[in-house]
Amino acid sequence: MKKDAAECTRVLKDRFGYDTFREGQAEVVDALLSGRDAVGIMPTGGGKSICYQLPALLLPGVTVVVSPLISLMADQVRSLSENGIPAAFLNSSLNPEAFCDTVRAAAAGEYRLLYVAPERLDTAPFRELARNLDVSLVAVDEAHCISQWGQNFRPSYLNIADFITQMPRRPVVSAFTATATLRVREDIVAALGLRDPLTVVSGFNRPNLYFEVTKPQNKQKELLLYVKKRAGRCGIVYCSTRKTVEAVRELLARHGVSAVRYHAGLSDAERRRNQEDFLYDRADVMVATNAFGMGIDKPDARCDNCGNCHGAFEEVDATEWMRAALNCVHQICGRGWPYGKAMVCDVLKGAVNEKVRRARLADVRTFGLLTALPQRKILDVLDALEQDGFLAVSDGRYPTLTLGPEAERAREEGFRYMLRVPKRAPDADGNADATSEDLFETLRALRRRLAEGANVPAY
Fold it and tell me: Which one, 181, 186, 325, 414, has least CB within 10 Å?
């Protein structure tokens, strides 16, 4: 049964503490309460969980939430329980006794939300439990995992549609993810068997987050400098492999940074302990693979929108650099051999190494033209020329350079090429003065003491 807007707003305020819905939330909530399937493409932190948690309180029975990340399940269940909303999860982190207790409580109708891993749906005990539950809504989180065109395809997600069809009464079905191309969205709808779903795609921009891309010469040194400048503040360092997680955490710990680790190779007990240490401010930095969800509720994020808009850049006349680079590509590719950015950079820098000698490129006219520039700056110039269409990069296994469609413009009389580069000493901490920063830290310390006394996360 559809609930009126006033009741939804009241629940949003009373149970979740928000005065208004964020972009896209109200439309999804209204669709689900009306009995219509829905797809929500919303950025991390954009409020996807409210879209199914709020309807779960207004619909009869229980809402089943399918989630692939143990850390996110535990985080959301803890947050819901602290708000007086009965919720639980079923996954491999529970010992047999706790698992059986949760199943019994679910069968008795004690929960409004039940979080499960997708692998759990294909087990006979859970399917038996689900058939005896009054399931009004199924919410599929990280729904891009169901698509073979998604970045984290998980075959176990293909069991969801079969699980839904075997239920005595088909519930309303919703799917949520942070990013999905049109092809992935179509896959989600088809694979889950959604019926005329409302699709809401909200913008990726979040005004409370700051985005910046940097290319450090020494990653470890830059990371330590970044963390040290923000001593006492929380943050997550994401790494692509478990091995890198271990190395980075050890590096931070060795330099006095309070850091914990999270990846799939750790025991459930350690993952749970480390997650709690991070949430409860006992550790400042979490070093993790993407097994640690980006939607973890830790609202200590700071600053502005984007490094490219932050004012930490200046324009320089790079016309001569551009011409040297284009001439170099023309000369060495004209010899009939394809080369990539690394070789072009070596030639422009005047590097005398085995690769350059073997290719006999030290005699080209552009050899050493940009000797005065650091190698990193030459690569930045090549990247910018590619982005602006002056250079083109092949799609092969070993990407090679050729002149791009805009290269002819460089021959025009009076043409100048301006390049945006970072200023030498950007203000990494924004414009907060010492007084406001001292006050912030004083209040933060007070918040931590109060939270420890109440045994809740500091926020």
Answer: 414
Claim: this prediction has a pTM higher than 0.85? no
d(CA 194, CA 206): 29
Reported confidence tier of residue 261, pLDDT bands at 50, 70, 90: very high
Dump pLDDT digits (tens) for 220-255: 888 998 888 887 788 899 998 899 999 999 999 998
pLDDT of residue 204: 60
The phi, psi pair for 288, rounded to 5°, reads: -150, 160
| Top-confidence residue, 452 or 197 | 197
- Tokens found for residue 446: 């007070």
pLDDT at 202: 82
pLDDT at residue 428 greater than cutoff 60: no
CA–CA dist 98, 385 (Å, integer): 59
Residues 392/404, Cβ–Cβ less than 8 Å: yes
Using one digit for the tens of pLDDT, what is the confidence trace for 157-180?
A: 888 999 999 899 999 999 999 878
Q: Does the pLDDT of residue 432 top 50, yes or no?
A: no
Q: What does the block give as tokens for 306?
A: 């984007």
Instruction: Give the C-alpha separation, 157 to 143, whole Å.
Output: 8
pLDDT digits 0-9 by tens, 35-85: 999 999 988 777 899 999 999 999 999 999 999 877 778 888 988 988 889
